[in-house]
Design goal:
This protein has nine helices and three strands, in the order ααββααβααααα. The protein is mainly alpha-helical. It has two domains: about 120 residues; about 150 residues, no CATH class. The protein has a three-stranded antiparallel sheet with strand order 1-2-3. α1 packs antiparallel against α2, α3 runs antiparallel to α4 and α3 crosses α5. The protein is flat, with a radius of gyration of 19 Å.
Length: about 270
């Protein structure tokens, strides 16, 4: 099946999922059991066809194609997968309005601006583990950033005494903030593994010794930011604006470190 067919069908299912979430917020009431099942089904179908589109873009004779648009689509697929799994247990339907439109942009970009930046496959457990864990770390911390934006809106509404409207469709702000911290904590553990493996096992993973790059430096800075936030949360009880600010700064550093670096190298410098 051509890649454009995979992307078109994927987009239809993701747009359907967005429509279900928007309807819930518009009616200012929870999605309900049947509505959640429909949302999960739409996301699962979208993930399946999204995987087909990824196979076309990631596979190359030179190795794993991790060019900008392919990498962005792969990260977004991982985010949607974790979001769908978490949705089965937690009331986080609203996060879809933050991550699904971005995923659609990544899909279209993958089709309109295909490029090749191959990573030679080493067929090693170290390489597979590093790539898998780094994807999970980026996905979880991206979900935490989306969750922090929802918490920010909730707190703003409550501070200005506007708790009506779509607020009735959202869980309590305390629960939303707790989930945000849990996502950061798990993502931080995975990011720690990613940073350590990249520092000390670069030869085994990438076939070349470690060297300081913008990607590595920004990733380490993000790790320090998330670690400082978790320490501040545990030691000083940081919450509200302070917590949101730390999470968003860490997320911005991660985006700059991975996709931002790829954009500069592949698009601006054309290398």
């Amino acid at each position: 099946m051509p890649q454009i067919i995979y992307i078109s069908i994927t987009s239809i299912f993701y747009i359907l999922a967005c429509t279900l979430i928007i309807r819930t917020l518009w009616l200012a009431r929870p999605l309900g059991k049947q509505g959640k099942k429909a949302l999960v089904a739409a996301l699962a179908a979208g993930l399946l066809f999204h995987a087909g589109a990824l196979y076309h873009s990631l596979h190359s004779d030179a190795g794993l194609n991790l060019a900008l648009t392919s990498a962005a689509s792969l990260v977004s697929w991982t985010i949607i997968l974790l979001y769908t799994l978490a949705l089965i247990r937690y009331p986080i339907e609203n996060l879809g309005l933050g991550i699904l439109p971005i995923t659609l942009v990544c899909l279209v970009s993958q089709l309109l601006w295909p490029s090749l930046h191959a990573l030679p496959i080493q067929n090693s457990m170290a390489q597979a583990s590093h790539i898998t864990v780094s994807l999970l770390a980026y996905a979880l911390l991206s979900l935490a950033a989306a969750q922090s934006c929802v918490v920010m809106v909730q707190e703003y509404k409550l501070r200005h005494k506007h708790p009506g409207g779509f607020m009735h469709a959202l869980p309590p702000v305390q629960l939303m903030e707790k989930l945000m911290v849990q996502l950061v904590a798990i993502g931080f553990v995975l990011l720690t593994f990613t940073v350590i493996s990249g520092l000390f096992f670069s030869q085994e993973i990438f076939g070349k010794p470690f060297k300081i790059t913008h990607h590595n430096l920004l990733s380490i800075m993000a790790w320090l930011v998330y670690g400082s936030f978790l320490l501040g949360r545990w030691r000083f009880g940081w919450r509200g604006k302070i917590a949101i600010r730390w999470v968003l700064i860490g997320s911005a550093l991660l985006v700059l470190g991975y996709l931002g670096t790829k954009f500069v190298v592949e698009i601006v410098l054309n290398r």
